[in-house]
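Worked example 3 (structure in, sequence out).
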């Protein structure tokens, strides 16, 4: 497409310049009429955040997204640029994207006055119309709005009172676009005051210049709730000038959480067949759900979606490491791989009392155990659920009669048997060790079907054992990536029961 290169050609083409908020509004309505996805990759907000965001754009509001860490606030802000026109015209050489029809900078005003319809025009992509700044205590007004540039003044032989000596900050450079400030409460109060005029009057004033430069800009802010951070807050007059405050949240369903992690995590590995049974995805997501209601975890800090993404990547990586070591092309996680997700958890949860006796590793292990237990109950009968006492079976096995589902398995361990698993075992050795447990394969096949016999079913069998352990039916020891399942009572008397139980 041939675009006008001169101001006269632009006038003759009938091109109309919209304000940035009108532009966003018009493009949003076009997408809505075409039933297009408004914010691709934003999951779980269809009935909450997205409608509020749409309303704010239609109302031509400046916006603040308020929520805990890891709630896709920054991603949402950056996607707003997709609602801008793909290309817009500016006066060529303008530092602040001057509208050719109504220039505001001295450079552009003088150029249009001098050349008229011969004023050169350039077209800029929407990606150049977005600016972002992370609020930190050292951010200055000069960074955001601008200041006198002595080097420019000296090079061009300009007096410091000359408008040409102004060095524009990041906000005026986003003129006719979108500017975002992340973590707004961290901005010093005196700097927040400097945003008043931009929000209210849509103009800026630099130093002592007796001029005001009107800005065509949409301002978007992100922040954690004020009660989370002690580093600062949003001053009341600034909050009053932000039109719409939109609250974000964590995924409210397990399916949404799984979709987010599946979208974000590095799960595919080159040249290898990755097989990830759904219950592993559920376990990983359940960790976050358990953390968000744990009394040990600081709920004001939040539990980021990045935690489950990192945990899933660590889980797959350990299974991949095993496949590389034993020379296998198929990668299937095992329950004994789960301890390797801990590095993705411990750095992403903040305890209620730092340095308390229950450290992050123990809390993470407890959350992992609870996640396994809750997931296990979705697929298998709850081992702790009370059942009517059945009649004695022909074998006279009391334990089996009391627990027709897991009786054989538990009795096998009660007889003094145990199995030892390692995360570097070959598939054959791993399966052979699990098959020692009487009744395990039968229970697994009864409730979970459709799994590959060689690679996937053994992982499900270990899932059953760990579910029984988390339900206090059998004991488990973990030492140096070796896992042993054994009788619970014997383990208690030997002082080797559960390492940690949260409740």
């Amino acid at each position: 497409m041939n675009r006008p290169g001169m101001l006269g050609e632009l006038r003759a083409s009938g091109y109309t310049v919209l304000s940035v908020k009108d532009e966003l509004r018009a493009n949003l309505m076009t997408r809505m009429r075409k039933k297009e996805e408004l914010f691709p990759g934003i999951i779980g907000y269809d009935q909450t955040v997205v409608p509020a965001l749409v309303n704010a754009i239609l109302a031509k509001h400046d916006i603040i997204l308020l929520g805990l860490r890891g709630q896709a606030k920054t991603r949402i802000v950056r996607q707003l640029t997709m609602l801008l026109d793909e290309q817009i015209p500016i006066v060529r050489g303008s530092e602040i994207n001057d509208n050719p029809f109504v220039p505001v900078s001295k450079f552009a005003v003088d150029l249009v006055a001098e050349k008229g319809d011969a004023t050169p025009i350039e077209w800029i992509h929407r990606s150049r119309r977005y600016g972002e700044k992370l609020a930190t205590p050292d951010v200055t007004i000069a960074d955001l709005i601008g200041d006198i540039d002595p080097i420019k003044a000296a090079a061009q032989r300009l007096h410091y009172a000359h408008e040409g000596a102004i060095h524009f900050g990041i906000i005026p450079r986003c003129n006719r676009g979108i500017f975002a400030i992340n973590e707004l409460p961290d901005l010093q109060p005196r700097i927040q005051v400097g945003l008043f005029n931009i929000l209210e009057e849509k103009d800026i004033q630099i130093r002592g210049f007796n001029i005001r430069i009107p800005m065509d800009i949409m301002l978007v802010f992100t922040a954690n709730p004020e009660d989370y951070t002690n580093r600062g807050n949003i001053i009341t007059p600034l909050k009053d000038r932000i039109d719409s405050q939109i609250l974000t949240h964590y995924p409210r369903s397990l399916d949404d959480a799984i979709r987010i992690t599946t979208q974000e995590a590095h799960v595919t590995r080159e040249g290898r067949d990755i097989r990830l049974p759904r219950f592993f995805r559920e376990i990983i997501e359940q960790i976050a759900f358990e953390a968000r209601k744990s009394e040990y975890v600081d709920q004001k800090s939040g539990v980021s979606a990045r935690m489950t993404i990192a945990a899933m990547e660590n889980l797959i990586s350990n299974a991949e490491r095993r496949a590389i070591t034993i020379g296998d092309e198929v990668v299937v996680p095992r329950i004994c791989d789960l301890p390797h997700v801990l590095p993705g958890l411990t750095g992403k949860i903040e305890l209620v009392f730092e340095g308390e006796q229950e450290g992050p590793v123990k809390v993470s292990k407890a959350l992992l155990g609870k996640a396994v237990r809750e997931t296990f109950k979705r697929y298998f009968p709850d081992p702790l659920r009370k059942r009517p006492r059945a009649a004695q079976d022909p074998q006279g096995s009391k334990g089996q009669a009391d627990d027709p589902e897991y009786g054989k398995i538990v009795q096998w361990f009660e007889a003094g048997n145990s199995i030892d698993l390692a995360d570097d075992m070959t598939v054959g050795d791993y399966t052979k060790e699990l098959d020692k447990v009487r009744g395990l394969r039968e229970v697994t096949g009864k409730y979970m079907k459709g799994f590959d016999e060689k690679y996937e079913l053994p992982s499900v069998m270990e899932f059953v054992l760990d579910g029984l352990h988390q339900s206090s039916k059998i004991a488990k020891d973990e030492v140096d990536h070796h896992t042993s399942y054994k009788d619970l009572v014997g383990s208690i008397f030997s002082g080797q029961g559960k390492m940690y139980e949260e409740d």
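Notes: Residues 305-326 form the longest helix (22 residues). The CA atoms of residues 44 and 327 lie 40 Å apart.
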